[in-house]
Specification:
about 90 residues; about 50% helix; 1 helix; mainly alpha
């Protein structure tokens, strides 16, 4: 037996989809700020936990970090070719 779609069934389906979308949009407008605020707080706590603890310095005191900086040179760049201008 073949069933055919009725106009009333189609209208109900479209109405349910539109209603569901509208309710979802309204709920997300209410909950999204709360969700984003909780994520921001969590990231802030994590930032403060991972921040390096440095000792407070007195005014006028100078601190120098003596960590060597590696200067990498790429030897595989190619050959340098000297040129001359020809008149």
């Amino acid at each position: 037996m073949i069933q055919t779609a009725s106009i009333v069934g189609l209208a109900k389906t479209i109405l349910i989809i539109v209603l569901g979308y509208t309710i979802f949009k309204y709920v997300m407008r209410l909950l999204a700020p709360l969700f984003l605020r909780s994520i921001a707080r969590k990231m802030e706590r994590q930032f403060h936990q991972n921040a390096p603890t440095s000792q407070p310095q007195k005014e006028g005191e100078i601190s120098i970090d003596k960590s060597p900086k590696k200067q990498s040179s790429n030897k595989d760049v190619g050959e340098y070719v000297d040129y001359e201008e020809v008149d």
